[in-house]
Specification:
heterodimer, A: mainly beta, Immunoglobulin-like, 7-stranded mixed β-sheet, 4-stranded antiparallel β-sheet, B: mainly beta, 6-stranded mixed β-sheet, 5-stranded antiparallel β-sheet
């Protein structure tokens, strides 16, 4: 049973560019949440997707957008990259059908913006 | 917004020692979880514990939701326990907030 997977592992972009990160949830999970973790900090909640819709959002600008597909996988898009967007981006999956439940995290995508 | 404070921020232990990590919330939260982040950045779920007490081997956790805190106990610590420990709760139902973290180093 595969756990949560993310791609790519590492990514280098320049300021102003756009980036797309991908996440496949744990088998049987229907909910995907995205987090940004700057160096030395705790993860910050970006948003959560359930039933292909954004269900909840943290304090991130509209440059951060996402999508969930019918197979429950998800993408995180960041437009007009800033140096401050350099971070580890984490995806977590869970099962919402029975209500809030345990989250399982992927290994992350490390984004460097030059 | 809700603040999640963890203490202590840093902890150094000798192998075999016990420790207690604390997580305080400024307001009520739901879905409290504890995670261990290893040196490679992987977050491992330790407990889903919105209330009560759970145990898993050398680890146990207690959440007292009415008093807005949770405790993580590590007994007979091992070097592999090193890393950063985070608690996480949800404001409302699905707006997640991570704590400030406790960085643990266990010395052989």
């Amino acid at each position: 049973d595969a756990g949560v997977t993310q791609s790519p592992t590492h990514l280098i972009k320049t300021r102003g560019q756009q980036v797309t990160l991908r996440c496949s949830p744990k088998s049987g999970h229907d909910t995907v949440s995205w987090y940004q973790q700057a160096l030395g900090q705790g993860p910050q909640f970006i948003f959560q997707y359930y039933e292909e819709e954004e269900r909840q959002r943290g304090n991130f600008p509209d440059r951060f957008s996402g999508h969930q597909f019918p197979n429950y996988s998800s993408e995180l898009n960041v437009n007009a990259l800033l140096l401050g967007d350099s971070a580890l981006y984490l995806c977590a999956s869970s099962l919402s059908r029975r209500g809030p439940d345990t989250q399982y995290f992927g290994p992350g995508t490390r984004l460097t913006v030059l | 917004g809700i603040q999640v404070e963890q203490s202590p921020p840093d902890l150094i232990l000798q192998e075999g020692a016990n420790s207690t990590l604390r997580c305080n919330f400024s307001d009520s939260v739901n879905n409290l979880q504890w995670f261990h982040q290893n040196p490679w950045g992987q977050l491992i779920n330790l407990f889903y514990i919105p209330s009560g007490t759970k145990q898993n081997g050398r680890l146990s956790a207690t959440t007292v939701a009415t008093e807005r805190y949770s405790l993580l106990y590590i007994s007979s610590s091992q070097t592999t326990d090193s890393g950063v420990y985070f608690c996480e709760g949800a404001s409302g139902t699905y707006k997640y907030i991570f704590g400030t973290g406790t960085r643990l180093k266990v010395l052989a």
